[in-house]
Write a structure and sequence with these properties.
9 strands, globular, 40% strand, alpha+beta
Length: 134
C-alpha cells in the first residue's frame, strides 16, 4: 500500500535491519523521527524534509547475521547516517534505553557550529548525532 509523504521530501536514507520494530523505535526515540507508515517488512520514519526507511533484511541473508548484546558497531561501512538532535546528552540516554549507544561525552567534538557524537543503533549500524551549538 502506497502512502503520501507526511513532509516535503528533501533527503532520505535506508537502513536495513533484522528487527524492524526495534530499530525503528530507536530512531523515533533518539532522533525524534515520526513513524508515518509501517507494515510487515518496513517502516517509514520522517521529520521535516527527511525520510528514513527501515527495511527488513531478507531472511536468507538475516540468517547469517548475528547481532550481539551489546551490538558490535559496524564501522566498516562506507556511509554514516547523520541526524540532528536537540540534546546529545538526552540522545545518549534514549539510545541506551533503546538498545543502542552513543560514545561518552569525552569523545564528542565540535564541527561547523555543532556538537557531534557518534554512536550505533540496536543492530550496530553507525550513526552520528549533531546538536546545534548555538
Amino acid at each position: 500500500m502506497e502512502t503520501e509523504l507526511a513532509f516535503p521530501f528533501n533527503a532520505g536514507a535506508v537502513v536495513y535491519a533484522i528487527n524492524v520494530p526495534k530499530v525503528s523505535a530507536f530512531y523515533v526515540e533518539v532522533a525524534g523521527l515520526r513513524t508515518t507508515h509501517a507494515e510487515q517488512g518496513h517502516a517509514v520514519l520522517e521529520s521535516a524534509g527527511f525520510q528514513l526507511v527501515v527495511v527488513a533484511i531478507p531472511p536468507h541473508i538475516a540468517a547469517s547475521i548475528q547481532v550481539t548484546v551489546p551490538p558490535q558497531r559496524r564501522e566498516d561501512t562506507a556511509v554514516k547516517l547523520v541526524l540532528p538532535v536537540s540534546s546529545i546528552a538526552s540522545a545518549r540516554l534514549a539510545a541506551q534505553a533503546c538498545g543502542g549507544q552513543l560514545n561518552p561525552p569525552e569523545r564528542e567534538w565540535e564541527f561547523q557550529g555543532s556538537r557531534v557524537c557518534d554512536g550505533h543503533d540496536p543492530e550496530g549500524n553507525v550513526v552520528q548525532f549533531r546538536q546545534n551549538a548555538l
